[in-house]
Design brief:
The complex is a heterodimer of chains A (about 110) and B (about 120). Chain A has strands spanning about 5, 10-15, 20-25, 30-35, 45-50, 55, 60-65, 70-75, 85-90, 95, 100-105. By secondary structure, chain A is mainly β. In chain A, strands 2, 4, 5, 9, 10 and 11 form a six-stranded mixed β-sheet that branches. A five-stranded antiparallel β-sheet of chain A has the order 1-3-8-7-6, with no helix packed on it. In chain A, β7 (about 60-65) and β8 form a beta hairpin. Chain A is globular, with a radius of gyration of 13 Å. The N and C termini of chain A lie far apart (about 40 Å). The mean pLDDT of chain A is about 95. Chain B is built from no helices and eleven strands. In chain B, the strands form two sheets. In chain B, strands 2, 4, 5, 6, 9, 10 and 11 form a seven-stranded mixed β-sheet that branches. In chain B, a hairpin with a 5-residue loop joins β7 and β8 (about 75-80). Chain B is globular. The mean pLDDT of chain B is about 95. Classes of the chains: A mainly beta (about 110), B mainly beta (about 120). The interface of A and B includes residues 31, 42, 96 and 97 of A.
């Protein structure tokens, strides 16, 4: 079957670094993507890891380990506007978003 | 290039009624996916259409159906509405050009309330 695990909530302060972990179990896995959704808004694409290793996009980095069925999103120099929900999405035909992780950034 | 549009943005229906939601993907995008988002269940995949054919389907009852037209526009229909169908319904379009991964572009959603 398919399963997806992320922490439900994470809290951090401005300027800090936070890591959101994701473990998955799915068949036909091609890669892992991350989406951000602000309250009341639509999800927007952040990054995709098709291969093992780290992908960096500005303040955000994403990591994938296929052998461990594990990935994470790293957010650096946190800003208040980073308060949002973050979804890891295995790329495997059906898109499983799950409940995501709600990140709250405090001043 | 215009983004994904969904109509209507808000809808109020009563139990037992049916509803049709519409999604226009980004020009040139060939794949449309539908999702249901509720506070308790997160973001759940309904189905995906590509070239007028349903390519993937989530775990929803048969009351939920969809279709895609030749211009890639898509509609989803929910029949015999239940209170639990109250949710934000999101549509996402994907280019689907054969690349290893195509990001999904989401529309603003249709907020359905069932009374």
């Amino acid at each position: 079957g398919q399963s997806l695990e992320q922490p439900s909530e994470v809290t951090a302060v401005e300027g800090a670094i936070v890591q959101i972990n994701c473990t998955y179990q799915t068949s036909g896995f091609y890669g892992l993507s991350w989406y951000q959704q602000h309250d009341g808004g639509a999800p927007t694409f952040l990054s995709y890891n098709g291969l093992d290793g780290l992908e960096e996009t500005g303040r955000f980095s994403s990591f994938l380990s296929r052998s461990d069925s594990y990935g994470y999103l790293l957010l650096q120099e946190l800003q208040m506007k980073d308060s949002a929900s973050y979804f890891c999405v295995p790329n495997a035909g059906k898109s499983t978003f799950g409940d995501g992780t709600t990140l709250t950034v405090k001043p | 290039k215009a983004g994904v549009t969904q109509t209507p943005r808000y809808l109020i229906k009563t139990r037992g009624q049916q509803v049709t939601l519409s999604c226009s993907p980004i020009s040139g995008h060939r794949s449309v996916s539908w999702y249901q988002q509720t506070p308790g269940q997160g973001l759940q995949f309904l189905f995906e259409y590509f070239s007028e054919t349903q390519r993937n389907k989530g775990n929803f009852p048969g009351r939920f159906s969809g279709r895609q037209f030749s211009n890639s526009r898509s509609e989803m229909n929910v029949s015999t509405l239940e209170l639990g169908d109250s949710a934000l319904y999101l549509c996402a379009s994907t280019l689907n050009d054969g690349a290893s991964y195509n990001e999904q572009f989401f529309g603003p959603g249709t907020r359905l309330t069932v009374l």
